[in-house]
Amino acid sequence: MRIIILTLLVLFWGCSSNSQFENYKHKDFREIKLPEEIGNVKFEYSGLTIFENNLILLPQYPFSSENDSIGYLFSIPLQQIKNYLEKNEYFIPIEVDSIKLNLEELQQFNSSGSGLEAIEIDKKGNVYLSIESYSLKKDFAEAYFLQGKFSEDRKSIKFDKNSLIQIPSVNHLPNLSYESLIKYGNDILFIYEANGKNISKKHIAYKWNLEQQKFSEILFEPIEYRITDVAKESDSTFFALNYFWPGELELLKPSSDSLRFHKNESNASCFKESVERIVKFKVTNKAINIDYSFEPINLKISNEVITNWEGLAYHKELGYFVISDTYPRTILGIIPNNK
Predict the structure, then answer these.
(1) CB of 320 within 8 A of CB of 232?
(2) What is the pLDDT of residues 20-39, one digit of tens each?
(3) List of residues 6+ apart from 263 with CB closer than 8 A
(4) Which sign does the torsion angle of CA 164, 167, 168, 171 carry?
(5) N or C: which end of the chain has fewer CB within 10 A?
(6) DSSP 27-82
(7) In whole angstroms, what is the distance from residue 231 CA to residue 50 CA?
């Protein structure tokens, strides 16, 4: 998760394009107002998922202090969200439940620059986390995989410190690691945050087989900018948050945007704009590829302020849930599925 201390004006520069998706379809964004204490920017929300008809909110920093081993996730029943949206009373905060996190002997990840980055929960209540650990001495982030289990009453999650394992890194870039994971069958897929053509010599994702207890590689089609979270649609497709802040131009070194521009066309002038969108990928046993038939969903809710979207969840009936971290503030919202 980026530590950005500037609120930027978005500058719109003219760019010619031959892409069939030059003008993204704008969905009707609707904010779900959180209670003040839950919407505090100190949590720096980093992920979303859906479990047993509840929307789960993952804070990067779920603890009160660096020495704590007990923290909290937050949960909102989907039926409650439906009722909230039908009432049209967006000035009233929605009710939020808490879920206790037990991370005993894992306090080393509870510090600035480190923290919880992505979450997946299967139907049996098994919980999978990716954790970022950043050290100024190394000047790059390491990522770890951790497994846990919901209690029978679904009020707490206990993590197994013995399941902690380091995820191989695709790149060694400052403060970038794995902000996305997703479960397919017996595999957990880990998607590195930056997968552009100009910064990766090897375009792959890693997967961890839960039965064989080992990593393997899978081809991953390059996509520019950052992938900050993913959400499963089916057994062969998932959606992803694709985000670019112009202040990261030198870090990410973006190439031509294959989803927005003709593949042989330079779009250097357009790197003065932010990119805030949902894209789609297809998964096979051999590769993960961009689904070019899916029209990217533009997430820009303001022409003046860039929003750092960090969490994504998908519900077939309701639509796309998104959450920002601290910039410009904590924002939880939904883009209704109008199919």
Answers:
(1) no
(2) 444 444 558 899 999 999 99
(3) 256
(4) negative
(5) C
(6) P--EE-PPPTTTS-GGG-EEEEEEETTEEEEEES--SSSTT-SEEEEEEEEHHHHH
(7) 9
Domains of the chain: which residue ranges?
Answer: 25-336
Can you name the residues that pair with 51 across neighbouring β-strands? Answer: 54
Single pTM value for the model: 0.89
Tens-digit pLDDT profile for residues 35-61: 999 999 999 999 999 999 999 999 999
Angstrom distance (rounded) from CA 67 to CA 55: 28
| Contact status, residue 56 vs residue 128, Cβ threshold 8 Å | no
How far apart (Å, rounded) are the C-alpha atoms in residues 199 and 191? 15
CB 174 within 8 A of CB 141: yes
Residue in 209, 67, 204, 65 with CA at minimum distance from that of residue 145: 209
Taking the CA atoms of residue 37, residue 43, residue 45 and residue 50 in that order, the dihedral angle to the nearest 10 degrees is: -60
